[in-house]
Structures are given as C-alpha cells and as structure tokens.
Amino acid sequence: MSVQLKNAKFIEDLELKDKRVFLRLDLNLPLKDGVITDKTRLNAALPTIKYCLEKGAKLVLASHLGRPKTPEHRKTLSLEPVAKALGEELNIEVILIEEPNSEAPKALLRSLKENQVVLLENLRFHEDETKNGEGLVNSISQYVDVYINDAFGASHRAHASIVGMAQATNAKNRAFGFLIKNEIEVLEKMSQAPLHPYVAILGGAKVSDKIGVIEKLVDHVDTFIIGGAMAYTFLAAQNQPVGKSLVETDKMNFARKLMDRLEVRNKKLLLPVDHIVSKSFADTSQVEEVARIPNEMMALDIGSQTIASYASELKSAKMCFWNGPMGVFEKENCSKGTFAIARALAENGGFNIVGGGDSASAAVASGFADKMTHISTGGGASLEYLQGMRLPGLEALKPPMSSEDV
Ligand code: AMP
C-alpha cells in the first residue's frame, strides 16, 4: 500500500457490528433543476455503504454538495435528491437530517438502530466544515464510534468532516473505505510504475489550477496535451492572437518559463493549432473553425487539425491521465474536441485514467466511459496525489506518531 496510507486502517480491519459509523462520502453529484444528471459518484459509494450494512453498522452518512454561498442554495444544494436516490439504490429508507444539533435529530442519532441509515444535510451549510471548526465536529462526534473516510474527491481538503472528525475518533476506530483503496491503487500504479509513452491531457477553465501539475509531472510524463481555456494562456504567452478567449494574464510569465523548461527537458507540449470560435460564450449557435482567432471572437473548443494531431499522439500512448475538457463540452457545438479525446482514449488500449469532475462527466457524455481503465471520483485530489502532495484526509487517518491509543 502507498506511503500515504501507511499505518492507516482499512474498513475490513474494523469491527462494525452495532457500531455507529460516521461515513464521509463524496456525494457531490451534478444536479439540474433538482434532478441528478450523473450518478457515477453515488454508484462508487455503494460498495462501502453496503459493506457497513452487511456488517450490522448504524450508519451516519455525510457529504458536501457544491459551494453554498447564498440562502437560496439551502434549497438548490440540499442533499434531499441524493437521499432519495440512495434509498432507491439500497432499498432502504435514508433519513435526511437537516440540523444535527436540534432536538429531534439528536434523539434519532442517539438511538440509531442496526442497519438504519441517516444522511446529514450538506455539510457546507455549516461554516465550520470548510474551516475545520470544532463546533461541527463536537456536535457530531459524540454520536459516533467509528469514522470512515471514503470521500477521495474531498480528501485534499482539511475540512471538519475530513480531518477534524477523523482526529476526534480514536485511531483504532478510523479507517478508509473501498473507494479510496481503489483510487489509491490506480494512482500508485501511475506514479510508481509509469508506462511509456505517458501522456497527460490537461484542459478545463483555469490554468492556475493545473499549471503546477505540469511542472510536478515533468519527470514522469513524455507529452503534455493542452486544451480548454487553459491553452489560451499558453498561446498568449507565445504572442499568438487569442481574441477574447479566457486568458489568465498573471500566469503568462509562468507559462513562458514552463515552455522553456519543457523544451530543455525534451518533453513534448502540444497546443491547439486551430479553434472553434464564437462571438459570445452565452450564445454558441453561430460557431466557426479558424486557424487564427479574430479579435472579437473567443475560442471555445479545439479545431479539427488539432483533434487529428492529439488523437494521433494518443494512438501510441501506453498510459494517459486526463483532467479537464478540451472545450465547452456542455454545448453541443463546442463538444467535438472533448469527445474526440474520449474516443482516442477508448481506442488506444492503454492504461487510461480520467481524473474527476468535469472530465468524468465528459467521458460519460461521450459514451466512452466504460472503455476507460478508471474514472477517478476526485479531480483535484487525484491531481494532488499524482504530484506527490500529501492529502490531509489520508494523513488524518494515521495513528499519531507517539500515541497511547494505538
Ligand atoms: P475545470 O473545472 O477547470 O476542469 O473546467 C471545466 C470547465 O471548463 C467546463 O465547464 C468547460 O465548459 C470549461 N471550458 C473548457 N474549455 C473552455 C474554453 N475554451 N473557454 C471557456 N471555458 C472552457
């Protein structure tokens, strides 16, 4: 097992019968008008939930959903549809607890019975969650005997349910679940035994999220394929015309230096050579393909020559890591590039990992999801793991260095 999980317990090491188990999951599912549009994360959470039920645990499930900021989000980012979907999958009633600190839920939590399942309402409705505040931890940990983290997608965050709750539980009674085990095994293979050619495909909206990854992965990866809005910061750094495309000007200098370093290291960096452009982001009914982006246009997808060159590079790749769509794939006119990457990965027979979030949704929308070696439930977490960063959620599971309770 990976050093990041060394000495941490696995769910199978724990006694769960009659225990009140706090199970932190990543049920941050995409919703449209209250309807779940992709159940990948819910399905990925089921093995651990079912295992706990088989072992006779009393289950307190918890997750965050989106980034609630306004009072209106209390409705739109409620976990209610998720509780319903979980209940249907498990064929069991899943009770949503809106406020664990009020009287009726407290009584329910105190008197939980074997095989009963409750789901706490969106953890991020509490300020304490993202601040790793004690209030939330104290109000929940008193009802909990066992802590299990299976929220890989949130384990790079030092939040209350990820770190505080783990630390408030005796080290003998905290563990990781099946989803985390699975994710780590795949990512370990990528970092410990990379196959070559190894290609990293990076896209999406923000350079700042991913530019550091290129630097950190440079020792392992042979070729970087760049798409999405990210590409336009690189092209602008090369003084190419980018029109009104999204550019992070404060990252241009970094992009320039990075390109120089990749050249010195003999690594390939592929950038778009043609583009699908539109006058507006909101209205993409009129798009055209261009090699040179006009001043008044913004690029919203890669063009057909770029697709051909990226697909040809991916044909011979033995290992690929993909994070971030090549364009605004949510809009049909701007989805070709992203779906072509999914197809190329589906056809190359390599060890191909799709890293979380939008890339996972794009793989599903492309129809090629089942042809990928693995679709990670965590975009940010998998990127940080591959860069060798310690994930706070995994660290918090380990016993303290010198401890009497282990
Ligand atoms: P990220 O979360 O950074 O992976 O970004 C994903 C988002 O990037 C998706 O919602 C895409 O619509 C968006 N995106 C991809 N390409 C572009 C582009 N060229 N311009 C603007 N947004 C883009």
Helices and strands, with pairings:
Blueprint: E1 9-10, E2 20-24, E3 31-32, E4 35-36, H1 40-54, E5 58-62, H2 73-76, H3 80-90, E6 94-97, H4 103-110, E7 117-120, H5 127-131, H6 134-141, E8 146-149, H7 160-167, E9 174-176, H8 178-192, E10 198-202, H9 207-217, E11 223-226, H10 230-237, H11 252-264, E12 268-270, E13 275-278, E14 287-290, E15 298-302, H12 304-315, E16 319-323, H13 336-348, E17 351-355, H14 357-366, E18 374-376, H15 379-386, H16 392-395
Parallel strand pairs: 1-9, 2-5, 2-8, 5-7, 6-7, 8-9, 10-11, 10-16, 11-12, 16-17, 17-18
Antiparallel strand pairs: 3-4, 13-14, 13-15
Structure description:
There is one protein chain. The strands form four sheets. The protein has a seven-stranded parallel beta sheet with strand order 1-9-8-2-5-7-6, sandwiched between helices. Strands 12-11-10-16-17-18 form a six-stranded parallel beta sheet, sandwiched between helices. The chain has a three-stranded antiparallel beta sheet with strand order 14-13-15. The two termini are 20 Å apart. It has helices at residues 40-54, 73-76, 80-90, 103-110, 127-131, 134-141, 160-167, 178-192, 207-217, 230-237, 252-264, 304-315, 336-348, 357-366, 379-386, 392-395; strands spanning 9-10, 20-24, 31-32, 35-36, 58-62, 94-97, 117-120, 146-149, 174-176, 198-202, 223-226, 268-270, 275-278, 287-290, 298-302, 319-323, 351-355, 374-376. It has 406 residues and is an alpha/beta fold.
